[in-house]
Amino acid sequence: QSVLTQPPSVSAAPGQKVTISCSGSSSNIGYNYVSWYQQLPGTAPKLLIYDDNKRPSGIPDRFSASKSGTSATLGITGLQTGDEADFYCGAWDSSLSAVVFGGGTKLTVL
Amino acid sequence: EVQVLESGGGLAQPGGSLRLSCVASGFTFSTYGMSWVRQAPGKGLEWVSGIRGGYTYYAESVKGRFTISGDTSKNTLYLQMNSLRAEDTAVYYCAKDLYSSSVGRFDLWGRGTLVTVSS
Predict the structure, then answer these.
(1) Is the alpha carbon torsion for A66, A72, A78, A84 positive or negative?
(2) Does A28 touch chain B (CB under 8 A)?
(3) Chain B, window 63-92: residues with a beta carbon less than 8 angstroms from a chain A beta carbon
(4) Average pLDDT estimate for A61-83
(5) CA–centroid distance for B7 within its chain
(6) A101 pLDDT band (50/70/90 cuts)?
(7) Which of A22, A63, B66, B119 is the most buried (most CB within 10 A)?
(8) A64-70 long-range Cβ contacts below 8 angstroms, 24+ apart
């Protein structure tokens, strides 16, 4: 059971938009920054979003994120088949003094 | 090139020990927060341990069994794993934090090293 809650899977057609939710609590998302990671099949995770809504250099603006209260959302527009991956949210938890992740969401581009 | 490279994984017996290493290149690892994150076969990411400014942090599942440390002269991060259990079987990733003051914004990941705990 992960501390952060994500839907197990989402799907959409190429060119469409999808959102992935991440729900936590006041000790993690509600108080600390959220990061999002993309893990393509057979590879290490890659940082997509940090500090709730900032993109590292090289990450296209098709990827965006927001946060409200104890929930965060990742949005992906203009879906491509190459976007198929597992996506994870993560945050520091001040009560646990630990990094917590969501269980991951598998994106399928139909 | 900025990168981290893990090594030290392998097969260990339940109750046994292993030491993982993570060599950092292109940056001084002690300047940043560094962590170990694992992923059991077919499962999600689980943060294991982190180090930042001399402070160490551990997941409850490994507290008292695993120890994170670093050697600045070798620019290398370690994870000493004792009293290994079957549930410790996973790919272990070394991850660099974006900032020196934080643990949990991982902008650089290694390729991982597989740890298998089995008799």
Answers:
(1) positive
(2) no
(3) none
(4) 97
(5) 10
(6) very high
(7) A22
(8) A65/A34, A65/A36, A67/A29, A67/A34, A69/A29, A69/A30, A70/A23, A70/A24, A70/A25, A70/A26, A70/A28, A70/A29, A70/A30
Give SS3 for B29. helix
Angle made by CA atoms A6, A34, B53, in degrees to the nearest 5? 130
The pLDDT of residue B103: 82
Which residues in chain B are contacts of A100 at CB distance < 8 A? 47
| Two structure tokens written together for B25 | 């290149």
Helix (H, G, I), strand (E, B) or coil at A5: strand
Beta strands A105-109 and A9-12 are parallel
In the predicted model, residues of chain B with pLDDT beneath 70 are none
Q: Nearest 10 degrees: CA dihedral of B97, B103, B104, B108?
A: 10
Counting one residue from chain A and one from chain B, the pairs whose CB atoms sit within 8 A come to 64
Contact B44 A104 (CB under 8 A): yes
How far the first Cα of chain B sits from its last, in Å, is 39
Query: Quick one: tokens of B92?
Result: 């272990």
